[in-house]
TrEMBL record:
Single GO MF annotation: DNA binding
Pfam families: DeoRC, HTH_DeoR
Swiss-Prot/TrEMBL keywords: DNA-binding, Transcription, Transcription regulation
Domain HTH deoR-type: 5-60
PANTHER family documented for this protein: HTH-TYPE TRANSCRIPTIONAL REGULATOR SRLR-RELATED, TRANSCRIPTIONAL REGULATOR, DEOR FAMILY
Species of the source: Streptococcus urinalis 2285-97
InterPro entries found in the cross-reference section: Carb_Metab_HTH_regulators, DeoR-like_C, DeoR_HTH, NagB/RpiA_transferase-like, Tscrpt_reg_HTH_DeoR_CS, WH-like_DNA-bd_sf, WH_DNA-bd_sf
Official protein name in the record: Transcriptional regulator, DeoR family
Length: 249
């Protein structure tokens, strides 16, 4: 006997609350119904602001100020993040001075920098330690360390960033909508904004789950950066291609 729509939608929400993310394949098996029906249910739940549609599924709707810990972020979409980082590494030339933002997607980039003749500036303690171990010339930004993201923030960090210029910058972002890049933390937003201003080119490394999400603080307009992301048929991605450079992997 078919499951009523109200029951299906509640089961979808229950599943997402358990794991923060659920794929279309999982829902088709769980609810024993068609993909088109599941997609309609997800569309309705997104309109009700109960979840976010992402490539291949959906994830829990978070508060504008909510931010996952490094541990929570690191287990999400790791294969996709690694592919994004590999693509980003091919854009780095010998002699470049680059900035690498704190974050789990940018962390995958570090493995591809061994042996490169570059200088790296970072606001992540974790990134700096790994880069030094790899023999890469590294400058770490000082300031207040935000434990949940391992990022140096605050006035001291911002002042140092404003003193530097970069050939290229590689940063993460919590949300990307049709107009703005966003993040939950005001201090991190200031830092990312300064990096974008001082870099010849800035690349946002993002998995598809960030598309359509909006966090508390606007960092910059989307046309100020290039986006490296996995290819998808996401409607927002098609719109973004008209406003910014998008590198699909």
């Amino acid at each position: 006997m078919p499951i009523l729509k109200s029951k299906r939608k509640q089961l979808i929400l229950d599943k997402i609350k358990e794991e923060n993310y659920v794929s279309l394949e999982e829902l088709i098996k769980l609810l024993e119904t068609s993909e088109s029906t599941i997609r309609r249910d997800l569309d309705e739940l997104e309109e009700e602001h109960k979840l976010y549609r992402v490539h291949g599924g959906a994830e829990l709707h978070h508060s504008l100020q909510e931010e996952l810990s490094i541990e929570q972020k690191s287990v999400k979409n790791s294969q996709e993040k690694n592919k994004i980082a590999l693509t980003a590494s091919t854009l780095i030339d010998s002699g470049d001075v680059i900035f690498i933002d704190a974050g789990t997607t940018t962390a995958f980039l570090l493995d591809y920098l061994k042996g490169k003749n570059i200088k790296v500036v970072t606001n992540s303690i974790h990134h700096a330690a790994q880069l030094v171990d790899s023999g890469v010339e590294t400058i770490i930004i000082g300031g207040l360390v935000k434990q949940i993201t391992d990022a140096s923030i605050g006035h001291t960090a911002l002042q140092q960033i404003n003193d530097f210029n970069f050939d290229k910058a590689f940063i993460g972002m919590n949300g990307i909508d049709e107009h703005y890049l966003t993040t939950p933390d005001v201090e991190e937003a200031y830092l990312k904004r300064a990096v974008i201003t001082n870099a010849k080119e800035t690349f946002v490394l993002s998995d598809a789950s960030k598309l359509g999400q909006i966090s508390f603080v606007n960092v910059a307009k989307v046309d100020k950066v290039s986006l490296i992301i996995e290819a998808s048929d996401h409607l927002l991605l098609k719109k973004l291609k008209k406003k910014m450079k998008v590198i699909e992997i």
